[in-house]
Design a protein that fits this description.
Blueprint lengths: L2 H10 L4 E7 L2 E6 L2 E7 L6 E5 L2 H10 L3 E3 L8 E5 L5 H17 L9
Antiparallel strand pairs: 1-2, 2-3, 3-4, 4-6, 5-6
Length: 113
């Protein structure tokens, strides 16, 4: 999966997903101001960081070489997905899971699913 495909997929998850360059070489995707996906543009290998439940993150890191603790993030909750090492469908599944995890914790009054 390439960077543009990641971007298009993240933005397709909900009309209120936003994209922001929040540091010189980092892009974030948010729902209601909360991060669910990060990408370092100048990384030596293309990768994205996703937020996952700790147990699932640990399991995926043990099963896939392309899933590792996230760079510069809380390593219990955030995992890096190395795009050149993982199947596109798997990457999309984890991005969707990250989005759903973050969206599920938003106040109900925002009505975001």
């Amino acid at each position: 999966m390439d960077i543009e495909s990641v971007r298009d997929f993240a933005l397709s998850l909900h009309p209120e997903v936003t994209e922001e360059l929040f540091a010189k070489e980092w892009i974030s995707w948010r729902i209601a101001g909360k991060w669910f996906l990060l990408m370092q543009l100048d990384a030596p290998e293309p990768r994205v960081a996703v937020k996952l439940p700790p147990g699932i993150a640990t399991e995926l890191r043990e099963r896939y070489d392309g899933v590792r603790p996230a760079y510069h993030m809380n390593k219990t909750h955030w995992s890096d997905l190395y795009l050149n090492e993982l199947d596109d469908a798997f990457v999309k599944e984890q991005i969707r899971a990250s989005y759903q995890l973050v969206a599920s914790r938003l106040p109900k009054k925002l009505n975001i699913k």
